Target: LysR family transcriptional regulator
Amino acid sequence: MDKFNNMQVFCRIVELGTFTAVAKEQQCSAMMISKYMAQLEASLGVVLLNRTTRTISLTSAGEAYYQRSRQLLDDLANLEAATAEMGDQVKGLLKISAPIDFGGMYMVPVIEQFLRKYPAVKVLMTLDNKPQNLRGGSFDISLLVTDTLDQGVVARKIAVTELGTYASPAYLAANGCPQTLEELSAHRCLHYVDTPHGDYWVFNAGSEVKKIKAEWLLSSNNGRALCQAAALGMGIVRAPKLSVAPYLQNGELVEILRNYQRPGLAVYATYLQRRYYPAKLTAFVEFLLQYFER
Model:
């Protein structure tokens, strides 16, 4: 029995939530994952997981074993990274998650310049609007454009962007320009999904925070698609200024409802807190900070 392998499998079950998800990640059968767990529990003489047909939960022994096992696995990963990067050479595979719009519009030039400076690094970038579980090990760093942050991660602010409300001159000429939040109910809205606020648009009305449920005509997780729809006169979009900047510059979109402006959204580079940070991670974070400051 490979107890180290079984410990890894147990931790991934806790982090991914199902045997099936771990089996898919490990490219084996769910029956094999169940076998690994049975071997681990038999060797320890305790039950680590409560299993029902629909849910998996930790026993008290399982909770304690997970915390210590995860620490051991993290320490081993840190040891391997430290040994591989002796001499502080910046090298290896750097795995990045970034929002679809921000990553697509801004990250490729950043990565091009970073790789020119550090040619021994390879970058794997995944574009996804959903927050990533960094403890799962799939990513070294996750970029977020948000006004809310989860606890337990290091978050470095690399940029700030306004969250504004925009429409095309043609749309406003045909439908009128809303002057108050209440008037939005008479307009077609283009709604960005996968935000912490769900179906609501959030505004500042003086010292009060107001949430307006958008009556959307088109909804998408791709801000560039929504901005294009707004530029074509399909409706009003609420988006970070980083996303609409090209449309503002050429006059295809104009900003409205500035009296209800929210504080700026921050762009964060987030990563797990640990005792040792690989050189590739620290170099990339510092490069990001300097790049966006310029």
In short: DSSP finds nine helices and 14 strands in the chain. The chain has a mean pLDDT of 87. The two ends are 54 Å apart (CA to CA). Residues 58 and 147 are 32 Å apart (CA to CA).
